[in-house]
Amino acid sequence: MILVSSCLAGLEVRYNATHSLDSKIRQMVDEKKAITVCPELLGGFSTPREPAEIVGGDGEDVLAGNARVLERSDRDVTDFYIKGAYLTLEKVQEYQASVVVLKEYSPSCGSAMIYDGEFRGKKISGNGVTAALLRRNGIRVVSEEGLSDLLREDD
User: Fold this and answer.
1) What are phi and psi of 46, to 5 degrees?
2) Please, are residues 14 and 6 in contact by the beta-carbon 8 Å criterion?
3) Domains in the chain: how many in total?
4) Integer Cα distance of 36 and 102 in angstroms
5) Residue closest to 139 by CA, chosen among 151, 148, 130
6) d(CA 56, CA 59)
7) pLDDT digit string (tens) for 3-35?
8) Using CA atoms, how far apart are residues 144 and 79, in angstroms rounded to an integer?
9) DSSP 3-state of 131
10) Bridge partner list, 5
11) How far apart are CA 30 and CA 49, in angstroms?
C-alpha cells in the first residue's frame, strides 16, 4: 500500500483550502492502490489556516527541538506539526505502507525542499517535519515529483 498527501489526490486541505491535484495520484486512490493522509489535519489544524514555515532549520531540527514551525503571524504551531507527523507514522504502520508520497515544499511534507522560514517564497533544501520523522523510522518518502520514478519501479 502507498500513502499519499491528501492535497495531491485533489482534496482541498492545503492551508488556503486548495488542492495540488496530481491525476496519477488521484487514479491510484480511485483504484484503491493508495490511501490519503494529511499530517496537518491529523495534527489538529482546520482548513483554511494561516501559512506556516519552519524557522531555524528543517524538519529534523524541529524534531530535535532546535527549530520551530511558525505561522506568518508568528504563532508557534510546532506541536501541531509534531503531533501530525506521529499520527501519520501510525497510519503508515497501520497500513504497512511501503512508500509515502508527500507534497513538496510543505513544512510537514516537503521531502527535499521547504520554504526558508521568512515567508518570501524562497525555497531551501530540507525535509518537512513528517517527512523527517518517517525517514527516521525507515519509511521511504518521495515527493509528487518523484512519483514517475516510483511508478517505473513497479512496472
Assistant:
1) -115, 175
2) no
3) 1
4) 10
5) 130
6) 10
7) 999 999 999 999 999 999 999 999 999 999 999
8) 26
9) helix
10) 37
11) 27
Cα 113 from Cα 23, distance rounded (Å): 22
DSSP class of 152? H
**What is the residue whose three cell numbers read 513528517?**
130
> Cβ contacts of residue 92 below 8 Å, gap of 6+?
3, 100, 134, 137, 139
- Give yes or no for a contact between 5 and 128, defined as CB atoms under 8 angstroms apart: no
φ, ψ for residue 36, nearest 5 deg: -85, 150
| CA–CA distance, 99 with 97 (Å, rounded to integer) | 6
CB count in 10 Å sphere of residue 84: 24
d(CA 28, CA 60) in angstroms, rounded, equals 30
Contact 130, 39 (CB under 8 A): yes
Q: Evaluate if pTM is beyond 0.85.
A: yes
Q: Which residue range(s) make up the domain with 145?
A: 2-154
Q: What is the CA radius of gyration of the chain?
A: 14
